[in-house]
Amino acid sequence: MLTRFAPSPTGELHLGHAYSAVLAHSAARAAGGRFVLRIDDIDGSRSREEYVAASLADLAWLGIDWDGEPVRQSQRLADYAAALDTLRARDLVYPCFCTRADIAASLSAPHGPSGAIYPGTCCNLAAEDRARRIAAGEAHCWRLAMDRAAAQAGDLAWEEQGQRMRPADPRAHGDIVLARKDAPASYHLASTLDDANMGVTHVVRGADLIASTDVHRLLQELLDLPTPVYRHHGLICGLDGKRLAKRDAAASLASLRAAGVDGRALAADLRAGRLPTGYSLQNP
Ligand code: GLU
């Protein structure tokens, strides 16, 4: 068994991250398996080195040890580019030149699990048009041609903690972005490729990412990657009953540490499903 914890270094870790890391770590250790870290720093404009260091310090404080050096998404760009080339060669992605404002202005842009569903404006541009605009340096992202991709993929079933889930239906996401204008891969593409490359057998993560798994299953099928087992755990809610967010300073691990909380005792409590007073677990 190999599990992972994959923080994005865009803020301080909070109790919800600690819960996720503790579950992933203890699942691996209980099975005599490995536990690895991945730093999801693909978004260069929001990632900060100080948050990488703070996250590692938080994990050490919780008594969580990891195997090997943390993997960094910022060093895996060649793999993301190669996957995009594969999809491009199969005509499953297309360049999109729309701005956010263009998409927001479209009357047919309802929201799906990955944000606004792309209205398809750039889907049917002529090949010469695309080539000319790219050659002229016009900013563009690359989108998955969802209908074609879903039609090519076979069985998108997956296993959630020993239970076979409904087959994923990624079409609700629309033509998602796989490579952004400002980052060489989207979360969906990078995370799916990394989990496969790292040999992750069990993905343990928050239930807020359950809808993303539909897209990840599709990408696994298209790119011939293995399917891990998933465990989407409940989310910790704060004193106001709302899901914790990075801006909730009171629940940050750094502030608990500064207040003298014993990290190892906290990890043992979280492992046993006991939360600090006032916090609650919202199950999926
Ligand atoms: N970096 C992601 C986050 O912090 C986690 C991605 C994942 O577990 O797949 O939300």
From TrEMBL:
<dbReference type="GO" id="GO:0006424">
    <property type="term" value="P:glutamyl-tRNA aminoacylation"/>
</dbReference>
<keyword id="KW-0479">Metal-binding</keyword>
<dbReference type="InterPro" id="IPR000924">
    <property type="entry name" value="Glu/Gln-tRNA-synth"/>
</dbReference>
<dbReference type="Pfam" id="PF00749">
    <property type="entry name" value="tRNA-synt_1c"/>
</dbReference>
<keyword id="KW-0547">Nucleotide-binding</keyword>
<keyword id="KW-0436">Ligase</keyword>
<feature type="domain" description="Glutamyl/glutaminyl-tRNA synthetase class Ib catalytic">
    <location>
        <begin position="2"/>
        <end position="255"/>
    </location>
</feature>
<keyword id="KW-0648">Protein biosynthesis</keyword>
<dbReference type="GO" id="GO:0004818">
    <property type="term" value="F:glutamate-tRNA ligase activity"/>
</dbReference>
<dbReference type="InterPro" id="IPR049940">
    <property type="entry name" value="GluQ/Sye"/>
</dbReference>
<keyword id="KW-0862">Zinc</keyword>
<keyword id="KW-0030">Aminoacyl-tRNA synthetase</keyword>
<comment type="similarity">
    <text>Belongs to the class-I aminoacyl-tRNA synthetase family.</text>
</comment>
<dbReference type="InterPro" id="IPR001412">
    <property type="entry name" value="aa-tRNA-synth_I_CS"/>
</dbReference>
<keyword id="KW-0067">ATP-binding</keyword>
<dbReference type="InterPro" id="IPR020058">
    <property type="entry name" value="Glu/Gln-tRNA-synth_Ib_cat-dom"/>
</dbReference>
<dbReference type="InterPro" id="IPR014729">
    <property type="entry name" value="Rossmann-like_a/b/a_fold"/>
</dbReference>
<dbReference type="GO" id="GO:0005829">
    <property type="term" value="C:cytosol"/>
</dbReference>
<protein>
    <submittedName>
        <fullName>tRNA glutamyl-Q(34) synthetase GluQRS</fullName>
    </submittedName>
</protein>
<dbReference type="GO" id="GO:0005524">
    <property type="term" value="F:ATP binding"/>
</dbReference>
